[in-house]
Amino acid sequence: MRSLRAALTAAVTTAASVGLALSATGSAQAATPLPAHVFAPYFEAWTGESPAALAAQSGAKHLTMAFLQTASKGSCTPYWNGDTGMPIAASTFGSDIKTIQAGGGDVIPSFGGYTADTTGTEIADSCTDVQQIAAAYEKVITTYDISRLDMDIEVDSLDNTAGIDRRNKAIKLVQDWAAANGRTVQFSYTLPTTTQGLADNGKALLRNAVSNGTRFDVVNLMTFDYYDNQSHDMAKDTQTAAQGLVNTLTQLYPSKTSAQLWNMVGVTEMPGVDDFGPAETFTLANAATVYNWAVSKGINTLSFWALQRDNGGCPGGAAADNCSGIQQNTWDFSHTFEPFTGGGSTQPGNDFSLSLGSASGTVTAGQSATAAVKTAVTSGSAQTVNLSVSGAPAGVTASVSPSSVTAGGSATLTLATTSAAASGTYTVTVTGTSASGSHSATYALTITGGSGNQCTGAAWSKSAVYTGGQTVSYKGHNWKAKWWTTGEEPGTTGEWGVWQDLGAC
């Protein structure tokens, strides 16, 4: 689980709708509807970061903002994160949301989450007045001029039948108010799932909505944290969970077409290692598979928990709110899912990632070190990746076998040293090159007990820019650049080339 995920008569309905309209705090104009297919990762609203800034950096134009909850059990007033210093007001995220909207995006405020759902501060659990719950929903809609609200209902809230009924009745009131005021407002339910679809309490929640005449536009499955002690192909599990949901929706809406039912489906992944542990790891290759599947099925929403986790800041670590626990580049998952927003028909370009099983090693001169070279498909289809290695010092032979793999495959880096190698630490770079571009990873090789002399100059780098007079070390020699250069390997440019050989070191 996430660490913070946090029957009325027509006359009464009409009166409530009028009351809501009179209490509106924002513009009466209708917000811009969301695209038919949207990528909207969760943004952790308690971190103090700017949602507009992270949206711009990641390329995610739409965000699901988590979470809204009451400050204490029994209250009917929601705040961001239940923090009374973060009211529903333009002063809290208002300028950020306007910036996102001006850039063609939008936000989806989310009520609930794991903390709220386990402490009685989810608003429909906390507040027993349906009209006040509806008024709170309406205030968020008008304050931020948004067109969808999300209800993140899990754990205790899923079994609170009174809260479920109040929530669905309040949503119905807001839907009637929106229709009367010419607004398009959608509602999504974010629910935990098994690998085969919703559990019985999730299905009961949806049946209650239907019995109340409440429309839910999207059912967003949390396709992670299964906690079933099984091995998992997280991409495959997403697909089977979604198919189970569609089977449930078919029973609730027998008149809808298959395309309409699939367009009610959303999935939220957790990049990298989820709360259960490494057995439930959603990889970049999984993300590419899920993207292609989502496009083919025409689902409504792709998301993940959370934007602040989309980086490789803690490879090999456990689930955390600020990193994925796997080796990746910052925003890899965002870039894979980005093209989904809009028509949902754009296939991403082919790309891959490259990483090493270990980032460093120590050997005694005369011995060898090895490391696994791992590749994965990050978008599009698998392609051929040619592998090379550079930066090995004198007395060290570096090789990668095989020298070419299909993205998703692995190879082995071998660094064989001789007794003539100089003691010291050297950076060796493994580079994978394909038609889409190249990616690299580095390995720090420490040699002890060597008899050679270590080059003191900085190691030559293929990607660095050098100007006249700068010196580097490469393959046991020092070299001096005669003029500006980049990418030209010392020792290959000839006597009259850019690099002057200053001799062995």
From TrEMBL:
It comes from the Bacteria. It holds the Pfam family CBM_5_12. Keywords: Hydrolase, Signal. Gene3D superfamilies: Carbohydrate-binding module superfamily 5/12, Glycosidases. Residues 37-344 form the GH18 domain. GO terms for molecular function: hydrolase activity. The keyword Hydrolase applies. Transmembrane segments: none annotated. Residues 1-30 form the signal peptide. This is Glycosyl hydrolase family 18 protein.
